[in-house]
Amino acid sequence: MSAVGGLSEALTARPKLRAAAGFALGAVVLFGVAPLVLSDFRLNLLSKYLCFAIVAIGIGLAWGRGGLLTLGQGVFFGLGGYAMAMHLKLADAGPGQMPDFMVLYGQMDELPAWWAPFASPWFAVPAAVILPMLVALVLGLLVFRRRIRGAYFAILSQALAGAMAILLIGQQATTGGTNGLTDIDAFFGYDLEDPVNQRTVYVLIAATVLALLWLARQLIQSRYGELLVACRDAEERVRFLGYDPATVKLVAYVVAAGMAGLAGALFVPAVGIISPALIGIVPSLQFVIGVAVGGRATLLGPVLGAVAVAWAQTALSEEFPGGWIYLQGLLFVVVVAFLPGGLASITGILRRRAAAPVPTAGPGTTPSDAAGPPVPDLDPEPADHVPVPTPATATEGAP
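and the corresponding structure tokens:
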């Protein structure tokens, strides 16, 4: 029994050690290698890409685990970004003053009442995360309680992104219209033109990525993570066992919205601008493309995919300014057609091929006999084959 227990502990500890090694490697790359090898300009670009990666973590949780194709994450990204930008514009204007664009475009005499609370960082910073989560909560209650899912849910979320962009464009006097909120040069009193402060913002964003990856891993490996996958694969069975699939999916949707809002808030000091062009339908689709390219069913895949797609957009658009959108579509089609598991599945494919036995034909055997039984899947997608909770545990209640 002691030998069996030791083997069980070893098998349990192995994924934990592998995860710890992965986080350590990520910390070395983000905090050690990248600042040394990248110029200030490229490091600032990486800060922008990592903000997209934060959005991708939430999409990977909601779509990869829960099957919720969220095509409107740009809305939550924009809510977080505008909340942070409003505070920074008010801080730059000074006490009792209005942002420059209100005087220039709107010719307003006083600050709108709904702008006033954002003058306090104690309101603006939490609002950048809580406000997107509240919007997602209201929308999710309306959608999931009515059992809307699949393509209908994707269309509704995309329509929300389009409506949000149109609303912001039409309010030029209070939101900056198509220009958005620009010329953000300071972040809580620190000059964003200073390379030292830019690197500080990068460190903050990189640390947030690692922290949210750890949070997502905890959710995925918890009982809730099993329920989320079960709702994706066998929703009626989960309901029969006493759980409410609407609540399970709602939690994933709200958490993903909070991550997108936080990403938008960090995007503002990294880039210095937030505008409707960054939160409409097209940016929302680009978020999803990055997750699909990286591998939505894995933990690290969405992060790598988001960074890779954003980097490719920058690099290729410099060479092909008018053709990047076509190259992006081609990349998405190629990955979906020939690598449906995304870039993260390449290592699993290579391991399976390396572990496949080489057929040898002995005397008196046919080629079919020499091939042997089919090779089992040694590295299945982590989002698949997760068991639905059994009736014995169903009485414990939903998370």
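(Above: one complete record from the training split.) The first helix runs from residue 2 to 37.
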